[in-house]
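Give me the 3D structure for Response regulator receiver.
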Amino acid sequence: MSEAAARAARILVVEDNEALAAGLRNNLEFEGYEAYVAGDAAAGLAAARRHTPDLIILDLMLPDADGFRVLRALRSAGDATPVLVLTALGDEADKVRGLRVGADDYVTKPFGLMELLARVEALLRRTARATGATTVRFGDVAVCLATHDVTRAGRPVPLRPKEYELLVALLRREGAVAARHELLREVWGYDPSVNSRTVDTHVLELRRKLEADPSNPRHLLTVRKAGYRLA
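Predicted structure for Response regulator receiver (231 residues):
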């Protein structure tokens, strides 16, 4: 499995052809990615805000607005998420226009699945190198996003999968507050068997493993009536 797949990167597919969108989602999930689908421009922009994807696959021909408008909206809002656009055969002008508006790469329809997956993987690798965000640190804790290794004061800290995903969800916000319902959606999806106490329990366990004094945390902080943040 690729490095990007090992990190369970989030990929948003904005495509109005339901069969194509479902096929892309299934194949992306088979490769180990976390995939979401939106069928039009408005739903795509909403999903980009909701899921904070690592990469967006964007069809330029959407029923409510063209993909160029989606690209402009993302970039004007300061969203630097890499975008792979899907263009029609022979539309070279659309390819050039998409790249100028803010696309990072393109694939021409009809496309081969292996080519698309290779471009997805390359874009994710390129983004990781550009941001230098392979290892994130706070206090004496280091989190390697490429390997999922977590250390404290140089010593390995074993985390369960959901503990690690929760930690990464907090890291993504760069100090901003994460509401419990946001963390439930991002880490546990829409599983009806979990509730806000699940988040609290996992935060307590992360504090036990990562804080010098779990009862008086310096990094995994509770924001009263709001949620949690990482300092």
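The chain is about 45% helix and 20% strand. Let me know if you want a second pass.
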